[in-house]
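User: Please fill in residues for this 372-position structure.
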């Protein structure tokens, strides 16, 4: 899959702009605060109807405009599709594919695309909630069944937490709680198994990617950390979950919320069996996070049978010349469309001027193609 072009109107600092992309490598070169990341955001939003920066559509409209419009042509194995998204204040959003209006939720799964930026370092450095959100987003985009299980689990979790808060310290507490234990355990067990399967697949690809991009002497591993102690016996996970949940009821009554389940789980990212967030350098952490994102690409390609579009924001800032070259060669060999922003001068970026793809200069919300 690749994006032929994108047209922007009143999006961030772009009043009106159209950019045609190479099917392989595209470099957006310019100083900070010129609009490079805004263009990546526009591409990501056009393909997913989600922003990697904000939950509020209004924030993406150009100053004092109150609206924006994006249009682009996407080439897939099934044919060419024209995607359009228009937003009008206060909250009117319309999505069209080949002229037909579609729902926002269905658009999320339509076009495989992956974004990596400086803030994704938090996947390694920050707390469990960020890694859970990453797993759930990847799982939901890869398999619609994952999204349904996740949605149902959180619906049951909210109901169970409401019972804990409203009925605790009453004689009917345990009876009311028991109603929600079985659905929580059933859905939670399915979600845990889905996550473990997902992480195992990602782990194989991430290990290989870190080996090729950073170090042949360090092994990257991913390990799911489950709050349910299942002793490696996933076949009887629901039984372990149910028994341990019952043992938590007295503490839940005191603390006021559910204390066991996938909503509290995490996964460890390790280099040579040492936690990357504690023992690794920032450069190692950055490449580990990048490996997770490129592993996500491998997964989406495996599921959809389409090569995703890869968007890389300021990925070269902490890579030396050799590793920049290794990354560019890796992306070139993958044969997928990639759009990269950089402030690094081209002579420090490209180890070879052989077929660099398209190079664009970005300045004050204007994009101009330049000679390689």
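Assistant: Residues filled in for all 372 positions:
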């Amino acid at each position: 899959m690749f994006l032929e072009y994108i047209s922007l109107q009143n999006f961030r600092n772009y009043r009106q702009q159209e950019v045609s992309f190479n099917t392989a490598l595209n470099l957006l070169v310019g100083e900070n605060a010129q609009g490079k990341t805004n263009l990546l955001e526009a591409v990501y939003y056009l393909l997913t109807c989600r922003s990697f920066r904000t939950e509020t559509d209004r924030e993406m409209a150009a100053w004092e405009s109150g609206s924006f419009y994006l249009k682009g042509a996407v080439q897939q194995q099934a044919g060419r599709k024209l995607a359009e998204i228009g937003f009008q204040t206060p909250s009117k959003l319309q999505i069209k594919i080949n002229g037909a209006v579609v729902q926002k939720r269905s658009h999320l799964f339509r076009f495989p695309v992956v974004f990596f930026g400086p803030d994704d370092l938090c996947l390694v450095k920050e707390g469990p909630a960020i890694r859970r959100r990453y797993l759930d987003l990847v799982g939901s985009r890869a398999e619609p069944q994952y999204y349904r299980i996740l949605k149902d689990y959180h619906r049951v979790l909210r109901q169970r937490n409401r019972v804990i808060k409203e009925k605790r310290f009453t004689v009917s507490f345990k009876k009311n709680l028991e109603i929600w234990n079985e659905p929580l355990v059933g859905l939670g067990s399915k979600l845990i198994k889905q996550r473990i399967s997902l992480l195992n697949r990602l782990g194989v690809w991430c290990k290989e990617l870190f080996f090729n991009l950073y170090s042949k002497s360090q092994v990257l591993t991913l390990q799911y950390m489950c709050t349910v102690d299942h002793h490696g016996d996933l076949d009887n996970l629901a039984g372990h979950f149910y028994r341990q949940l019952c043992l938590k009821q007295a503490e839940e009554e005191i603390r006021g919320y559910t204390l066991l389940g996938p909503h509290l789980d995490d996964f460890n990212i390790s280099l040579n069996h040492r936690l990357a967030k504690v023992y690794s350098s920032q450069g190692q952490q950055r490449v580990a996070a990048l490996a997770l994102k490129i592993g996500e690409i491998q997964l989406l390609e495996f599921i959809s049978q389409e090569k995703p579009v890869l968007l890389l924001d300021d990925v070269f800032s902490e890579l030396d010349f050799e590793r920049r070259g290794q990354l560019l060669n890796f992306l070139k060999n993958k044969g997928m469309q990639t759009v990269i922003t950089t402030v690094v001068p081209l002579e420090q970026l490209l180890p070879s001027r052989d077929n660099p793809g398209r190079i664009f200069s970005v300045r004050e919300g204007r994009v101009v193609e330049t000679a390689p």
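For context: The chain is about 45% helix and 25% strand.
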